[in-house]
Amino acid sequence: MWRSVLPLLVGLSPAVLLLLQLPDFTVTQGPHLEDYKYGRQGSEWHDKKPFCSWKCILLTLQWPAGFCQSLNNESLCMIPETINNWTIHGLWPQRAFGCCDCWPMFRSDIQELEAELHEHWPSLLTTRSSFYFWKEEWEKHGACAACVEGMNSPLQYFKISLKLRRQFDIHSVLEAASVTPSCERPYKVSEVKQVLAPHLGQDHIIQCVTDHKDREVWFQVKIPLSHNLTMGCVHHDGDSGDHHPPPSGHPCPPDDPFYYFPIDHQRPQRPCD
Ligand SMILES: *[C@@H]1O[C@H](CO)[C@@H](O)[C@H](O)[C@H]1NC(C)=O
Ligand SMILES: *[C@@H]1O[C@H](CO)[C@@H](O)[C@H](O)[C@H]1NC(C)=O
Ligand SMILES: *[C@@H]1O[C@H](CO)[C@@H](O)[C@H](O)[C@H]1NC(C)=O
Predict the structure, then answer these.
(1) Alpha-carbon distance 134 to 242, whole Å?
(2) Is residue 51 part of a domain?
(3) Which domain holds residue 240?
(4) Where are the alpha helices (DSSP H) in the chain?
(5) Res 216 pLDDT > 60
(6) Does some domain include residue 96?
(7) Is the omega angle on the peptide bond into residue 7 within 30 degrees of 0, that is, cis?
(8) Active-site residue among 89, 120, 204, 235?
(9) Does the annotation count 89 as an active-site position?
(10) 138, pLDDT greater than 70
(11) pTM for the model
(12) Helix, strand, or coil (residue 62)
């Protein structure tokens, strides 16, 4: 097309040239560029997803021995002596909109919870302090959840998370059903889900990582909750959490056995070698 009109353009000023070319340009590139420049995409987004539109929130609990298997660097994992239980990874609103990293959190905000947080929400990375971990979770997820009454400050958000952790006492539920950590005994997804479903709802997800010996190892449970923190929210497991630094794992394969490794504080990354 341009080739046929090209001879006509000879002698026209650059401004006219630009004008002539514009239509074609707008079809392919224009909308994005314009929207970006004038912020239209932002406002459109805002119309489609009003503030605080999230419906589901995932309480994600991790099993320390499994978590360590997700790290490929031997010197990265650390399980404090006091940690012998499932710990909190995070409380993540799903498809949240209206989050910002504009709500900084300080140590003094959560001072009264610090002992409890160290016990139930420790960093398991040698390279990251627990406070840094909490701060990161708050800024990434908490600030999005904060549009809901009862979660609208760092203190409230961490209080709620700890309360939920107490409510979902996975360790005791499993133990009562003889599902206990072991290097030898593999478990099936169906048998574990059956044990957990009455306590966590049908939609909970059990996640595994593959260890250095290609074993499936259980490391995480995601419990979907509604806005009002009742069980059984229909969720979409999309952009649901931290993808760094550990890989986020995968749902344990339904047909393969997986392991629920014991915690070894001395050799956190090699409990079953
Ligand atoms: C493992 O992590 C430690 C601590 O961050 C670092 O010093 C070391 O270089 C890492 N090793 C490898 C092989 O990445
Ligand atoms: C794990 O934590 C719960 C409370 O959240 C507690 O009831 C249980 O005894 C703990 N289990 C172990 C092995 O520490
Ligand atoms: C909590 O929210 C769910 C989903 O929006 C709703 O079905 C349920 O009735 C609510 N429960 C309470 C106690 O408000």
Answers:
(1) 12
(2) no
(3) 56-259
(4) 2-9, 14-28, 30-38, 40-48, 64-69, 114-120, 130-137, 143-145, 154-167, 170-176, 189-200
(5) yes
(6) yes
(7) no
(8) 89
(9) yes
(10) yes
(11) 0.80
(12) strand
